[in-house]
Every structure is written in C-alpha cells, then in structure tokens.
Write a structure and sequence with these properties.
globular; 6-stranded mixed barrel; Asp_de-COase-like_dom_sf; Anaerobic selenocysteine-containing dehydrogenase; Prok_Mopterin_Oxidored; Barwin-like endoglucanases; 17% strand; alpha/beta; binds iron/sulfur cluster; binds ligand MGD; 726 residues; Rossmann fold; binds molybdenum atom; 29% helix; metal ion binding; 30 strands; 7-stranded mixed beta sheet
Length: 726
C-alpha cells in the first residue's frame, strides 16, 4: 500500500499515508487517511519511535486548516484603510516586486534599520523556514529583528549560552527514566511539553508512577498536570526565583552537593544565595519553608531526578535567575547529564555542534529608544511599538511579519496594533487575515503543513529520545500557491538586486543556489557526517522515524564552552540578583486590592491561530477569567458575571468563572483570544468569545534577558458596567 510513498498523493487517491503534525513541539507522527483525494481521518502512528501513536485534537485539525475557505491562497493587497478596507488579489510576480520595492525603498531612504522584522512561532515548526527563512531575514540587513522568543524562552537560551556555550544547548528531562520529576511553571498535559519534545506525556506520567516515581508541580494554578501529579504546591506568580534559590541554599547549607568535576565557581555560590533562606521563600512565594527544605532534600536523596522550569518561570520578571537556579539544582545534585536526570539530546543533524545555529551573543547593539541590549541578534519584542512610533534616525518605517500574530501575542498588543497603522509599509507572510495581518499592505500566503516536506531541525534537538524522521509532503501544492521557502528565496533575491551587492560574488552565487534549492535537496548535505552514520537513503526508507536510542551522557565533551567547563556563576545573571533583592523589599503589587494575572493553555488551543475551526472550539467555553471565589466575593462579583480587568496598560471586559484551582490573589486568562476585530477574515473565530490577555500585559515588565514578564501582571477587578457585545 501507499504508506511509504515519497511523493504527494495522486488525485483521487484513497488509502493511508504517513504524515506529521507540526503544530506543537511534540511533533507527533500521523497516519492520514484519504478518500478520493480528501483527508478523511488523522490518527497517531503507533510505529513512530518517538510519538508511539499519540495524537491530540489539534493534529486532526491540520486538515481543517488546509480546507479552510478563509485561508489565503493568493497574495492580497489592502485597498483603503479602517473599516472600509477591502482586499484585492495580486499575481505573485506583482506582489513580490511590490514588497521588494517598498522594503528596499524604506532601507535606502531611511537607513537599513528602518525595516523591522518579526518572526512568529510557526517558523520553528517549518523546515522551509529553518533552511531559507534566516537568509531572507539577513537580506533585510536590519538590526531591528524581533521574534516570539522574547515572549517565551529567551531566558533558557540566555542561560545556555552563558553556561553551556550555545544558546540551543538546552538540557531536557529524561522523563522515561527519572524517579522524581519536579515541574515549575509548565503544564505539559495541555501543552504537550516545551523545550522537552515529549509526545504522549500522559502515558509517560503513568509509566513514571508505575515504576514508583513521583511528579511534583509548583504552579499558581492547580493545572491538568498538577491534577495528575503526586503533589502540587501553589506559588505566588513571579516569586519562583526566591523559592528556587532557597532550594539551592538548602542543598549548600546541608552539604547535599555532588557536583561534577567540570564546573567552576562552586565556592562562590554559598555567598550568593546566603540570604535566600526557606523563610524568605515562604514570605515571598507562599510555599511553606518546611516544604522548601523537604523538596531540596528529596531532590538530593533521589537516585535520579529532573528539575524542569518552563514558560511560567521564564515569562517572568526574573526568568533568567529562575533558569539559572533550575540548572544549579540539577548540577548540584548530580542530575545534569545523568540518565534519569536532565540530558542533552544528540540529534542526527546537530545544529549546535556544527554551528548551523550561532552560539549566541549579547549587547552587540541596543534598541534605539529604551537602550536594551540585543541577544542572539534579536531585540525584545516588548520594544517593537516604541521603535515604530518614536521619530528619529533608525525608526522602523516598514515591517515584515512572518508567521506571527504579535497583536495578540505580545504585551500591550492593542497599542502595537495602532502603531502598525502608522507604518509606511507592512507585509505579512501568513495564512490568514487576522488581528495582525489586517494591518498589512500586502499579505503573502504560503502552503500548509500537509503540502510541505518536514524534518524537525529544531525539535529532534530538544526531544526526550534521539530519533530522526523525514516526512514527505502528503498533498500536492495547489496550483498558484507557493511554499514558504520559495517566498523567502524570491524575496531575498529581489532584495539583493535592489539593495546592491554586499558579499563577494562567489558567496552571492552560492547563496542564490542555496535559496533556489528545496529543503529536501539540502537535507542530505545537513545529514553528512552525522554521529549515527544515518544516510539520507535510510532516513527516507523509514518515514515513521528512525530510532537512535535513549539520551546518553555526553559531558564535558559536548560542552560548547571554550574550556569545556561550566561556569556556575554566569555574570549577567548573577548581576541581576541585586534587582531581585530590591524587588523583594517592595513586593510584586503596589496596591492592596491588586491581583496577579497569569496565562493558561488548553489542549484544543494553539496560541492565537487555530480558532477558525469548529472542531477545536466547540464544547464548554474556556475563555473566562478564572478567579478564586474569595477574591470574587470580596469584590461583590458572582461566578459568571462580566468583570472589568484593569492593568497599567489597559482594560478588558470578560466573563469570570469562580475556581478553587487558582490560588487566592491570582487570576488567569488564556492567551490567543480576542478575534472579532474589523478587517479580519476569520468567520468562525470571530464568533468565539474572549479577550486578549495581552491587552493587559505590560511591555515595561522585563527579565534581564529582555524576555517579557507576561505572568504576574498586577491587575484590578471590578464588576463591569454593562454586558459586552457578542
Ligand atoms: N500573555 C501571554 N502571551 C503569550 C504567551 C503566553 O503564555 N501568555 N505565550 C507566548 C508564546 S510561548 C508564543 S510562542 C507566542 C506566539 O506568538 P506568535 O507566533 O506571534 O503567534 P501565533 O498565535 O503562534 O501566530 C502564528 C501565526 O502564523 C500563521 N501561520 C500558521 N502556520 C503558518 C505557516 O506555516 N506559515 C506562515 N507563514 N504562517 C503561518 C498563523 O496564521 C498566525 O498568524 O505567544 C506568546 N504570547
Ligand atoms: N494546547 C496547546 N499546546 C501548546 C501551545 C498552545 O497554545 N496550546 N503552545 C505551545 C507553545 S508556543 C509553548 S511555548 C508551550 C508552552 O508550554 P508550557 O511551558 O507547558 O506552558 P503553559 O501551558 O503556558 O504552562 C505554564 C504554566 O506556568 C504557570 N505559571 C504562570 N506563572 C507562574 C509563576 O510565576 N510560577 C510558576 N511556578 N508557574 C507559573 C501557569 O499557571 C501554567 O500552568 O506550549 C506549546 N504547546
Ligand atoms: S500533541 Fe502537538 S504534535 Fe501531537 S498531534 Fe497534538 S498538536 Fe500535533
Ligand atoms: Mo512558545
């Protein structure tokens, strides 16, 4: 049968083919059933050595995105603006020329930094973006580069760059072999894991329990993950730095340390954490001092333990300190690079060791208005709006967004939306006319996941098991549509012609050849010399994925630091302890009636962009503000009322739901909602209730790495004057 075929299905095909889901980091292998050329079923592939048959409701929605009549299939140009705006289709040649002309004009008239670029999350899930996207971004020659990373995982990268020598040298929990799994600020039951590619998390937790292991979750909300854990501890949002450092304090004070030989400055740690006592942690975080001590002791006593801190402690005012403390807990208990601890995946295509991705750098330039340093070539997206709105040399006049929806996903999105209208020119490379792309002058749509070849250059490197998998495109590209890599190539070539040569001719030629080659042609080159001797041919013969075995210890050899040692006191993070101490004196809130806002994810949401399919939005509404019944009662608010939530930057009206699952003093909204805006073309999503949490989050609240502190935003709650529309 056609399960193993290597080219798209023929028209009218009936049968099953292997596919892959690229919607989240779990990268599940799929079995896709076709009837007369239409997708009629999507199931998990039990033969996939990593995902083992797992699939979630979102995977099934891949077909809905492909079939969605609202999805753009041709380039469009906006005629007029505001509510009167309409969209007109263009030919590809016309659209690409116009975009290249306008971007080049901004660059030559106002200087190269006049073009800004924002890369959204789906870029890391696309092979074509990995192979061709960065060359396009480089061809813009701007320092005003932004991405969703700075509302997500920059603290992880910032720390990995300083301690392990490469921003993507990120340890992942060896969840299949650990005895104690300590989770801070992550909800893998809903998110399916992040910086931990772990398809089938629920089964793996059951297996952990079956072998006598334990999972402990520290989170301001009793999440889906907390509910399947052995223990859950509430923690005040934004306070984990003090809590985690207190655990380090206990390890050092009680002499529970078994650090490896390749670490430096161990002796400096006791002085750095001396004042972070369990008592201080209790006062700040609400976690009892006795529990802080017990957790530290249990961690030291466990034969194999993994400490994991993710989005909740990374989109945080002290995200870098949190990630540092998490790393210290693993290192000091001997759990870094140990089976059952946290380990470094060794992917077949080693983007780290082969420097396919740069190791990272810091403060080579700064943002113009707020003077914030770049990290790894990007500025914090929290400064994007001011860089567009503040006049002067280097002001952003033209913007490119690629697979991103920053109006819903970055702090003070409403103000960013206004700023987008003041640009001279904006182009979006995207599938939809949504809250962000409706501001563009031109939208260039690309093919969907089912039409593209896929190899996960990023996520094999973050996976809990070493595997490799090449999945050929299932569906042929519709006539007149383009793959993302083709759009990147066409734009890069046009820009080079308009902006004039910069590199020597040989390099330019090589670049042109590379941009013209499909990702599939580049993969054999990338595979060359891999440590497994895995050939391109062998990879293609096994579309279910090639198993390369469990994670293996690899330090200190694989460290990317020059001296193959780990500095336990990374300066840029250690220097931030002074700011942490100062914040402990003032506290997270300034007013007695303030509550702390946190986000949440649901298994049927995918950031902001999968709400246009009824399959994922039916069922009980899930957009509400969750609040503790006591906090509602104290404000005269009843369950189900519409409330006004106000922060420093804005306010929204939204239904509330009383829930004892959130800690008193904490309220929670999901992100990625708030769709019914004029000019969008999201017929179904526009009927989905909810508001954008990022109309409340504050671009002034940042970690030292430049990452936005989305969680723990102080807000006030009051009964709303009238019911909201819709
Ligand atoms: N308050 C709060 N804010 C958050 C978060 C939070 O937890 N709380 N989470 C943050 C995180 S972790 C992230 S990653 C960001 C996400 O932030 P973004 O990446 O800005 O937002 P997405 O919702 O992922 O938007 C993806 C966009 O890509 C388009 N798209 C989908 N597939 C493709 C494709 O294959 N090609 C192209 N060209 N376009 C495509 C979609 O139509 C959509 O417009 O949000 C962040 N924002
Ligand atoms: N279904 C679904 N899956 C997804 C996504 C999605 O939108 N939907 N998005 C994908 C993306 S882009 C990413 S980055 C990952 C993220 O994956 P995760 O890191 O698992 O992210 P969340 O589910 O947002 O979990 C963050 C947790 O941190 C908690 N938290 C908030 N503030 C604090 C705090 O101050 N301290 C502590 N200890 N906890 C806190 C929140 O209550 C929440 O439970 O998920 C990915 N997977
Ligand atoms: S868990 Fe993630 S990768 Fe797997 S089917 Fe769901 S969305 Fe797709
Ligand atoms: Mo993310």
């Amino acid at each position: 049968m056609g399960l193993l075929a290597d080219s798209p299905i023929p028209s009218g095909f009936t049968g099953t083919r292997l596919g892959v889901c690229n919607l989240c980091e779990a990268i599940c292998g799929l079995r896709v059933t076709f009837t007369d050329g239409e997708v009629t079923g999507i199931r998990g592939n039990p033969d996939d050595p990593l995902s083992r048959g797992h699939v979630c409701p979102k995977g099934v929605a891949l077909a809905d995105v492909h079939a969605d009549p609202d999805r753009l299939r041709r380039p469009v140009r906006r005629i007029g603006s505001g509510p009167q705006a309409r969209w007109e289709e263009m030919t590809w040649e016309e659209a690409l020329d116009l975009v290249a002309d306008r971007l080049a004009a901004a660059s030559t008239e106002h200087g190269r930094d006049a073009v800004g670029v924002y890369l959204g999350n789906p870029n890391v899930h696309s092979l074509g973006s990995a192979t061709h996207g960065s060359a396009f971004v480089r061809s813009l020659r701007t320092r005003n580069r932004f991405s969703a990373s700075s509302v997500d995982q920059v603290p992880h990268q910032f720390l990995a760059w300083q301690m392990f020598g490469h921003q993507l040298m990120l340890p992942v929990p060896d969840i299949d072999r650990t005895d104690l799994f300590l989770v801070f600020g992550a909800n893998p039951m809903a998110s399916n894991g992040s910086i931990m590619t772990v398809p089938d998390f629920p089964t793996r937790v059951r297996e952990l329990h079956a072998r006598g292991g334990r999972m402990v979750v520290v989170d301001p909300r009793r999440t889906e993950t907390a509910k399947v854990a052995d223990e859950h501890l509430f923690v005040r949002p934004g306070s984990d730095a003090a809590l985690l450092l207190a655990m380090v304090h206990v390890l050092l004070r009680e002499d529970l340390v078994t650090a490896p030989a390749y670490v430096d400055h161990l002796d400096a740690l006791p002085g750095l954490v001396a004042d972070f006592t369990p008592e201080l942690a209790e006062r700040v975080s609400g976690v009892p001092a006795a529990d802080v001590e017990r957790l530290a002791r249990e961690l030291a006593a466990a034969e194999r333990a993994a400490v994991y801190g993710r989005l909740g402690v990374s989109t945080h005012g002290f995200g870098s300190i949190c990630q540092w403390a998490v790393t210290l807990l693993n290192v000091l208990t001997g759990n870094l690079d140990r089976e059952g601890g946290v380990m470094f995946p060794e992917p077949a295509i080693d983007t780290v060791g082969r420097r396919i991705v740069s190791p990272g750098h810091h403060d080579r330039w700064r943002s113009r208005v707020r003077d914030l340093p770049e990290f790894a070539g990007e500025l914090p997206v929290s400064v994007l709006r001011e860089e567009i709105e503040t006049p002067g040399e280097g002001q952003i006049k033209a913007l490119v967004t690629i697979a991103g929806n920053p109006v819903l996903s970055t702090p003070d999105g409403r103000a960013l939306a206004r700023a987008l209208d003041s640009l001279d020119f904006m182009v979006a490379i995207d599938l939809y006319l949504n809250e962000t792309t409706r501001h563009a002058d031109v939208v260039l749509p690309v093919t969907t996941a089912l039409e593209r070849d896929q190899y996960d250059l990023v996520f094999h490197g973050l996976a809990i098991r070493n595997t490799a998998r090449f999945t050929p495109a299932l569906l042929p590209k519709e006539p007149g549509t383009r793959h993302d890599w083709e759009v990147f190539g066409a734009l890069a070539t046009r820009l080079a012609a308009r902006l004039g040569p910069r590199a020597p001719w040989r390099a330019r030629l090589q670049q042109r050849v590379r941009m013209a080659a499909s990702p599939r042609l580049l993969l054999p080159l990338l595979l060359r010399g891999n440590r497994y001797g895995l050939t391109w041919r062998a990879l293609r013969r096994r579309p279910e994925g090639v198993d390369l075995g469990p994670l293996r210890p690899c330090l200190p050899e694989r460290l990317q630091t020059e001296d193959k040692r780990i500095d336990l006191t990374p300066r840029l993070v250690v220097d931030d302890i002074a700011r942490l101490r100062a914040s402990l004196d003032t506290g997270p809130t300034t007013q007695p009636d303030e509550l702390l806002l946190i986000g949440r994810r649901h298994s049927r949401d995918c950031n902001s962009w999968l709400h246009n399919t009824a399959r994922l939005t039916r069922g009980r509404p899930r957009h509400q503000l969750l609040a503790h019944p006591e906090d509602l009662r104290a404000r005269g608010i009843s369950d189900g009322d519409v409330v006004t939530v106000t922060s420093r930057v804005g306010s929204v009206d939204v239904e509330c739901a009383a829930s004892e699952d959130v800690m008193p003093g904490v309220v929670s909204l999901p992100h990625g909602y708030g769709h019914a805006l004029p000019g969008t073309r999201l017929t179904h999503a526009a009927t989905v209730p909810g508001v954008s949490i990022n109309d409340l989050t504050d671009p002034e609240r940042l970690d030292v790495s430049g990452n936005a502190a989305l969680n723990g935003t102080p807000v006030r709650l009051s009964p709303a004057p009238a019911a909201p529309a819709g």
